[in-house]
Amino acid sequence: MGRATKVRVAGAALAAAVVVGSLITAGGASGAAAPAAAAGCGVLFDDFNYSSHTDGTLGQHGWQVRSNAGGPGVPGATWAPENVTFPTVNGDKVLQLASSTDGTAAGTKHTEVLQGERRFLEGTYASRIRFSDAPVSGPDGDHVNQTFFTISPLRYDNDPLYSELDFSEYLPNGGWGEAGPINYQTSWHTYQLEPWVSKNKSNSQRSSVDGWHNVVATVADGHVKYYIDGTLVADHDRSGPFDVYPRQAMSLNFNHWFIDLATHNGGLATYLEQADWVYYAKNQVLSPAVAVANAANYRSTGVRFVDDLVGECGGTPPTTTTTTTTTTTTTTTTTPGTPVGCAGVSAWKWESVYLENARATHNQRLWRARWWTQGSEPGLTAQWEDLGRC
């Protein structure tokens, strides 16, 4: 989310996804084995070799392109899947998030791509990201936020299990009362919506990061360490008033959005954020140099996609466990993520009023309203209880 005093609702539209396949080559078939250096406890690697946001392989690989309304950013703005593209840059395809505004909410388009299945916790995260200081077209000066982060749902205000790690939130023109350029790394304990209270640890670099950079973080042994181009820029631990070490698995996200429209100068402005690749090594602490080298090794051997994030360290998790107590009840626990019954439940709508205990589906999950609510998006606000994926 960023620094301790800023205000925004958590930015990921969280949902369950089924990730298919282990090793995909440039031609889309099973191919070369993963580099030995990357083996151990499971890896996700993606070179973003897709044709468009409607490419079926994108969804098969667990990626979701956001289209639903809601925060963060300008109220009433659109999350535009058509603005997520995969152009060729320097001979290789990249993920591109093009966000634009004409100074009005109706004319503002945000973008987000995420691995919605919450499978990301300890380990090493890395991505090669191109941040932009200036728009590719139109007037400059907007409060735009270019991000790479992990996040879990906030079930209610001050949820003690809430977890979020902002590896980079780059504000080229500033925002939240700060002048730009500024790049944040923030680890979250929790927050409260109304009145706003944030509990986190945050560092920032008050200089431009325009261009391509390797963004790396390690999460292990009570420390979250953040690196930009191999340089340690933040180390957040459990000490102090807020234990910011993540407490539950999270989704993995890129998003690109406007904080507000206060500094727009007129006309349509379009900004770009690009990602060349993303890499996550589960339960492994790798140096930035090794993480980047492992990603390069996949690419050099023609491996475009890897996903073997199963079990605690590469093993297959149990499918069903049944426990019978000495009382008259029998408790059955299935694998986390087992679908719940969503048949006949209507999809959540921004304009609808929901009374206490009303149910709605959203992002392939079933939700229960804790109290009267309208305009609060399931997964991003405390008003909704997550009952599981459909």
Question: What features would you describe in this structure?
Answer:
Helix content is 5%, strand content 41%. The chain is mostly beta strands and 390 residues long.
Main attributes?
390 residues; mainly beta; ten-stranded antiparallel sheet; 2 helices; 41% strand; disordered N terminus
Low-confidence stretches: 1-39, 314-337
Strand content: 35-45%
State the order of secondary-structure elements, H for helix, E for strand.
EEHEEEEEEEEEEEEEEEEEHEEEEEEEE
Share of helix, binned: under 10%
> Which sheet architecture does the biggest sheet show?
10 strands, antiparallel
What overall form do the CA principal axes indicate?
A: globular
Mean pLDDT: 84
- Give me the Rg, rounded: 20 Å
Compute the number of strand runs. 27
Number of discrete helical segments: 2
Span between N and C termini? 28 Å
Helix and strand content put the structural class at mainly beta
Q: Secondary-structure blueprint of this entry?
A:
Layout (H helix, E strand, L loop, with lengths): L22 E3 L17 E4 L9 H5 L2 E3 L12 E2 L4 E2 L2 E2 L2 E2 L1 E7 L7 E12 L2 E9 L12 E8 L12 E8 L10 E11 L4 E9 L5 E10 L2 E6 L2 E6 L13 E9 L10 E14 L5 H13 L2 E5 L12 E5 L5 E5 L18 E2 L4 E4 L2 E5 L3 E2 L9 E6 L1
Parallel strand pairs: 4-9
Antiparallel strand pairs: 1-20, 2-19, 2-20, 3-9, 5-8, 6-7, 8-19, 9-18, 10-15, 10-19, 11-12, 11-18, 12-13, 13-14, 15-16, 16-17, 21-22, 23-26, 24-25, 25-27
